[in-house]
Amino acid sequence: MIIYVDTSAVLKLVVEEKESSAAAKYLSRAVAQGGTLVASMLLYTELHCAAHRRGFPGELVNAVLGGINLVDLARPDLMYAAALPGGLSSADAIHLAAAIRLEADVMVAYDAGLLAAAVDAGLNVLSPGAGV
């Protein structure tokens, strides 16, 4: 199973938030059952920028990223992201385009707009601990 994780989901593994425990449990269980966590390299940039803004150590970010298969973005990903409907932010559109290209079985995220666009694109979505 391919599980695409966006920044809103992975950030919960770095910063304690309401859904952090549920997100960590779901992702750990999915990997233990043979699932593969994937994201585009955009996650690397977004997570490190968040670490700089919030003052938490880059080593923690790198440890979390070590469990995720990061894939390079391609020009078609960026072009497809630009054409997506729904008024997504650039980053969310890029994450969705990458998830579609990678044929993700599920997208784990916590951004309502991204989740709605992913459902419209035919992806299964989860937000562990948030009731989605």
Main attributes of the structure:
Rossmann fold, five-stranded parallel beta sheet, alpha/beta, about 130 residues, globular, single chain
Describe the protein.
This protein has 132 residues and is an alpha/beta fold. It has a single domain, classed as 5'-nuclease (Rossmann fold, 3-Layer(aba) Sandwich), CATH 3.40.50. 52% of the residues lie in helices and 14% in strands. It has seven helices and five strands. The protein has helices at residues 7-10, 20-32, 42-54, 58-65, 75-83, 90-101, 112-120, and strands at 2-5, 36-40, 69-71, 106-108, 124-126. Strands 3-2-1-4-5 form a five-stranded parallel beta sheet, sandwiched between helices. Helix 7 (112-120) links the parallel strand 4 and strand 5.
* Overall geometry: globular
Q: Which band does the percent of strand residues land in?
A: 5-15%
Total count of strands: 5
What does the average pLDDT come to? 94
* Gap between N and C termini: 19 Å
Helix-strand category: alpha/beta
Q: Extract low-pLDDT stretches.
A: none
Number of helices in the DSSP assignment: 7
CATH architecture: 3-Layer(aba) Sandwich
Radius of gyration: 14 Å
**Which fold name corresponds to the CATH topology?**
Rossmann fold
State the CATH superfamily name: 5'-nuclease
Main pleated-sheet profile: 5 strands, parallel
